[in-house]
Amino acid sequence: MRKLKVTELNRLTPEAFKNSEKIPLIVVLDHVRSLNNVGSVFRTSDAFRVESIYLCGITACPPHAEIHKTALGAEDSVDWKYFKDTLEAVDNLKQQGYTVCAIEQAEGSTMLDKLVLDKTKKYAIVMGNEVKGVQQSVVDNCDLCIEIPQYGTKHSLNVSVTTGIVIWEFFNQLGL
User: Fold this and answer.
1) Which residues does the UniProt record annotate as the domain tRNA/rRNA methyltransferase SpoU type (predicted)?
2) Where do the structural domains in the chain lie, given as residue ranges?
């Protein structure tokens, strides 16, 4: 096997990305403090044509060198908005007809491997702070909670890893 060169990958230009079909998914970052995590979420969102990212609270916004270090330019292709308050972002999404899902370990959460999405609906996933997770007030205002099954000793995954796993599942079910 021969590794492909970057020029052989036939990727979209940022302009073509802006005009391309997206999966009906918005990623909401609820007080994510690490700029590397924010950049990683941009890059994964670009890879799977996520509609937009909502950056909330203390979550940093582009342009920023530390975001760019991991986003590698995806912060220029993926649309984003900033909200001072995550609850405002959730309310905004609900008014637009999105089903809002907190990605959190909670009573009654749906395990990701059991999740069945409706292709006729639009979704948003709320990703929480690296230490505190999704704020309880935000969880209370979401339509459901989704949890990634885990089988080791740790109680959580890195927020950018979690986001990648969840986006992949939404992409597989919603497709382009």
Assistant:
1) 25-167
2) 20-174
Separation between Cα atoms, residue 50 and residue 67, nearest integer Å: 18
Give exposure, 109-143, as e/b (b: 16+ Cβ within 10 Å). Answer: beebeeeebeeeebbbbbbbbeeebbbeebbebbe
* Separation CA 123–CA 101 (nearest Å): 7
Query: How many Cβ atoms sit within 10 Å of the Cβ of residue 74?
Result: 24
What is d(CA 167, CA 161) in angstroms, rounded to the nearest whole number?
Answer: 10
Structure tokens at 58: 């203390």
Q: How many CB atoms lie within 10 A of CB 45?
A: 28
Domain 20-174 architecture: 3-Layer(aba) Sandwich (3.40)
pTM: 0.97
Residue 16: CA atoms inside 13 Å, Cβ hemisphere, count?
4
Give the tens place of pLDDT for each residue, 100-115: 999 999 999 999 999 9
